[in-house]
Amino acid sequence: MLIGFSVETLSAVSIDKEVPKPYCCFEKEPGLGLHGEYGIASDPIEVLDSKTLSIAGFSYKASRTPDGWFFAGQGDQIDQMTGKKALIVGKDEPHKHCAMKEDISNQDFIIRLAGNQTIYDIEWLSVFCYRFSHDFGHIELGLVEDEYLVPPFIPEVRESAPQRKNVVLC
Fold it and tell me: For the DM13 domain, which residue ranges apply (predicted)?
């Protein structure tokens, strides 16, 4: 027992998943980025942590489509039932999540997987039209054992509880 010390809570995180496997990653070979309709193309996908992916050199003629989302999931079919919309870091927040509607040319994006999804839960990453449940282009993300450790996702540390924000329409 220590006398004269106080304990404060820095952060609390609910953990309801198995401990992540220590190694992963997607094969990094030329041509293994996103490719598809409407000029969709990217460099290979890079894992930053268990919930965060980097998509470098991404292009997409979004103005020609009804809507477009980064969408991740598992299963043979890519549709609204097998995947979830990922957030674009710096653009989207849980209360403000909007489709890509403007043309994108050779831009770098960081995306965060939805809810409880981790890289161990997904088999593909798609650019997906939610309105018509159509896959514009995807990459299959089979994990291969690698020598790189995948750091866990650590949520943002706040000094106070998040404030409730109004929903912003896109």
Answer: 30-142
